[in-house]
Specification:
The protein is mainly alpha-helical and 187 residues long. The protein has a domain of 129 residues: AhpD-like (Up-down Bundle). It is 61% helix and 0% strand. The protein is built from 10 helices and no strands. The C terminus is likely disordered.
Length: 187
Amino acid sequence: MYYFTRRQFGTVLAPISVFSARMPVPFLSFYGKLPRLDKKLQLPHQTAMLIREQVASINTCLFCVESGRWYAMKESPESLARLDALPEYKTSPLFTDAERAALDYATELTAEKKIEPGTFERLTRYYGEREICDIVWLVASEHLYNVTNVGLNIGAQGLCELTPQRAANAPESSSPPAAEKAPAAPR
């Protein structure tokens, strides 16, 4: 696993070297299923990407923000402008009303751990029951990644440039202690 991540990213990612290296295989099997489950979502890929980035930003998981940006650069470089505009999604013309409703919902669920009736009602104007479940899945699974990385002090690894606003919000200690530093797997 170290070989393949080093080959793909130029380094072993901290989540692999810090978390994955210490967990039993059944945990890693579960953790590895999360990205495969994302492929079964009915929500548009771009919307899913925006939701994950929003949740990671709120939870200040710089590794997750950075890795999401890295994947976007590789898969769809045109989406970088939207990632950069994410802090202004409510007013930016780069986002649709449907995306704003999904991002409002994800933001409220992440920050408040509850949803106001008006937020849910607005979401139902744009998304069906299955898509709403997809959004909840994205928020919940991203939260798992974020808490794991933040809890183990895994920060940005220099995979790509973070926007100045996100870099300024970085916690002072955003990388694991030197003795534990090792490349990790993408979230």
